[in-house]
Amino acid sequence: MKTIISGKVWKFGHNIDTDAMAPWKTLNAGWEERSSSVLHIRPGFIDQVGSGDIIVAGRNWGCGSSREQAAENMKLLGIGAVVAESFGRIYFRNSVAIALPSIACTGVYDAFGEGDEMEINLNTSRVFNLTRGIELKGEPYTPDMLKIIEKGGLMNVLKERMSEHQGG
Amino acid sequence: MNMTMAEKVMARASGQAQAKAGQYVTAKPDRMMVHEAFAACAWILKSMGIKELYDPNRVVVMLDHYFPAPSVSMADVHIMIRQAVEEFGIKHFLGYSGICHQVMCESGHVIPGRLILGTDSHTTSYGAFGAAGTGIGQTEMSYVLATGEIWMMVPYTIRFHLTGGPVPGIMGKDIILQIAGDYGTEAAQYRSIEFYGPVADRMCLSDRQTMSNMGVEIGAKFSFFEADEKAVAYVRKRTDEPVDAFGPDEGAAYEATHIVDITDMEPQVAFPHNPGNVKPISSTGNVPVAQAYLGSCTNGRLEDIAVAAHILKGRKVHPKTRMLIAPASKEVILEATKCGYTRDLMEAGAHILPAGCGACPGGHMGLLGGGEACISSTNRNFRGRMGSENAHVYLGSPATVAASAITGRLTDPREFWNETTV
Ligand code: SF4
Q: What is the mean pLDDT of residues B201-208?
């Protein structure tokens, strides 16, 4: 996975919960049905969002359930990264596990307007507003988390570990 | 070093003498609780050619979110889960016993001082017995099932000192709702909570479970009460493993201590669509409810049903309201029946549903239609949570649910009964 990510920003508010990202009734559905209700709180979003776009959110993005589909749906929508003031804890862990870049960054909500261009350096968690010339410092990933993201997710880490194990 | 409860558990789980808040460790959990997410885990593991789990005896598999199966496709998923349980040699299959968190406690898997990971956010419930329970997703669970370990941060701890009262008509639910309202839904983000003080000491285990359960609604990773004599006695009856009292060291370091004085507390209600949108019952106004829902891992225990039975005995559920009761476990239904509570409730017009998650996550058995309002003893009222995106879910205590069922609108339970006391 690339460690420099850039894209166009979409803005969401505070306390956007997992049920809004992945409603219960769609959890076991195929992507076509599932996609139609991702972030249904903002009608039309899934038709407008483009591959590689970035979500900027307020506090507590992904609060609520352990359902991994919340983070997974962002990935399937083509979201390149989510940068929020803060994250629900399990959502954050899930996004690391499936290698969806998620940066907690104080001040990001006010520093970006919708449509601004953002660049993120995953190694340093520095976040740049290329449109307005602002630089912010997000919470850095630990080396372990970065390794999981770079390898494309925890399952790839497990695969490697298993093959090492089998190789003796 | 004097350690918090979280630090003590994480030290033990990572094989160290000490652990300090902020430190990252590789932890080996004592138990892994997996509900229907086990279908995904089994699929992930099998697709990677993994045939053996790290330790099948640490794994407990449940069926609760979709029990009894609401569709043929879910019945097929259950078949696949049961097959995988056999293939992986998992002995602890508790598929038909009730809601995962209640059943984990009833069946002796929740032991003070242990680390328990579950594929469910409300795994924090186990803190009521001094156990460090927390939720993870299915990919991380698959990794833990295969390797027996996972990265974790040792969380900082905040304390809530619960004092004042006793107050008639108040339950643990009201206290945790008031905390969510006053301190916000991020009060404990990434943190461990320790509830303590005189109110915590005299609180029944069931109310402690409610509060630990909803710790995650204010962001908590763990949500502890000290495992005192009451907690130890409960657990000892349900396991052969050694069970000891468990609490923090004297002089442990806390990030913050909040004092919650319940002396003047009223019953609390969370308004749509967030558990932190809380008002005291006296300022809720006239809110008609089409459904009164009593159940879930938060408030589906015998104590909760007893409260509802006392309020509803000899009275009737309002003709424009339906009251649904989904007890947290089969054991709870049996006990409630022996005590006569189910009869009292049914005579009042309530429906008793099978033990399971039911309508709580928007699954089945009692979903809400567009425009309907529900007073619910569950833990979340996100938009669309219990059915239609245009429905309104209000969260309250079992007493508030029962009282509102009688009048057909949000109602102060103290109008009917004032014995519930914390
Ligand atoms: S009862 Fe509700 S909150 Fe509890 S485990 Fe089931 S779905 Fe989750």
A: 98
pTM recorded for the entire structure:
0.97
- Cα–Cα distance between A70 and A21 in angstroms, integer? 5
In this model, does residue A168 exceed pLDDT 80?
Answer: no
Distance CA B250, CA B351 (A): 48
Give the separation between CA B41 and CA B17, rounded to whole angstroms.
32
Instruction: Enter the tokens of residue B87.
Output: 């293939």
Please report the pLDDT score of residue B238 as a whole number: 98
Neighbours of B13 (CB within 10 A): 25
The residues, any chain, with a CB within 8 Å of residue A17's CB and separated by 6 or more, are A62, A63, A64, A65, A88, B274, B380, B382
What is the average pLDDT score of chain A?
A: 95
Q: Is B359 in the pocket of ligand 1 (CB under 6 A)?
A: no
The count of other CB atoms within 10 Å of the CB of residue B317 is 21
* Domains identified in chain B and CATH numbers: 5-155+221-241 (3.30.499.10), 269-415 (3.30.499.10)
Q: Is B200 in the pocket of ligand 1 (CB under 6 A)?
A: no
B390 vs A: CB within 8 A? no
Determine the average pLDDT of the residues in B314-326: 98
Q: Residue B309 is encoded by which pair of tokens?
A: 């039975």
Instruction: List, in order, residues 6 or more apart from B299 with CB less than 8 Å away.
Output: B173, B210, B377, B378, B397, B398, B401
User: Is the pLDDT at B23 greater than 70, yes or no?
Assistant: yes
Nearest CB partner across the interface for B137, out of A66, A86, A159: A66
Taking the Cβ of residue A63 and every Cβ of chain B, the question of whether any pair is shorter than 8 Å is answered with yes
Q: Does B125 touch chain A (CB under 8 A)?
A: no
Chain-centre distance for alpha carbon B367: 20
List of chain A residues whose C-beta atoms are within 8 Å of the C-beta of residue B380: 17, 19, 64
> Domain A4-165 has what CATH class?
alpha beta
Q: Could you tell me if B405 and B411 are in contact, meaning their C-beta atoms sit under 8 angstroms apart?
A: no
CB atoms within 10 A of CB B219: 23
- B55 reaches A (C-beta below 8 A): no
Q: Name the one residue in this structure whose structure tokens are 């040699």.
A: B89
Contact B24/A at CB under 8 A? yes
Rounded CA-CA distance B121/B167 in Å is: 30
**Number of C-beta neighbours around residue B346 at 10 A:** 14
Atom of ligand 1 nearest to the CA of B298: 4
* Ligand 1 in reach of B120 Cβ (< 6 A): yes
Domain ranges of chain A: 4-165
pLDDT tens figures, B142-151: 999 999 999 9
| Any ligand 1 atom below 6 A from CB of B104 | no
Cβ contacts (< 8 Å) between B44 and chain A: which residues?
155
Q: Which mutation among B62, B94, B101, B121 tests ligand 1's pocket best, with the greatest number of atoms within 8 A of CB?
A: B101
pLDDT digits (tens, 9 = 90+) for A8-62: 999 999 999 999 999 999 998 889 888 888 998 899 999 999 999 999 999 999 9
Provide the Cα torsion B237, B238, B243, B246; round to 10°.
Answer: -100
Q: Please give the structure tokens belonging to residue B259.
A: 């004092």
Q: What value of ipTM does the predicted structure carry?
A: 0.96
pLDDT for A167: 56
- pLDDT of A2 > 90? The answer is no
